[in-house]
Amino acid sequence: MLGRVRLSIAVELGYPSDIGAQCAAVRREVTDRVTAWAGVEVSDLVVAVERLHSAHSRRTGRERVR
Question: 4-58: what CATH class?
Fold first, then answer.
């Protein structure tokens, strides 16, 4: 290992969902990839949820939502 880094990443997630589990999965994936690609240990990774997308927000606007 060459060193250690601290990172922060912002994500957009679908909702409803298990946000904690999705953030944990992102944390694992980013940590593994950074270690493999850059050869450094990720000592701290902050995952910020920037936006949530509901099934209703993906509609075209012509459909009725109850």
Answer: alpha beta
Enter the tokens of residue 8.
């922060």
Backbone dihedral region for residue 61 (phi beyond 0: left; psi -120 to 50: alpha; all else: beta) = left
pLDDT confidence tier of residue 2, bands split at 50, 70 and 90: confident
User: Which helix (H) or strand (E) is 26 found in, with range?
Assistant: helix 19-38
Q: How confident is the model at residue 45 (pLDDT cuts 50, 70, 90)?
A: very high
Structure tokens at 50: 């920037």
CA distance 39 to 36: 6
CA distance linking residue 3 with residue 5, whole number of Å: 7
What residue ranges do the domains of the chain occupy? 4-58
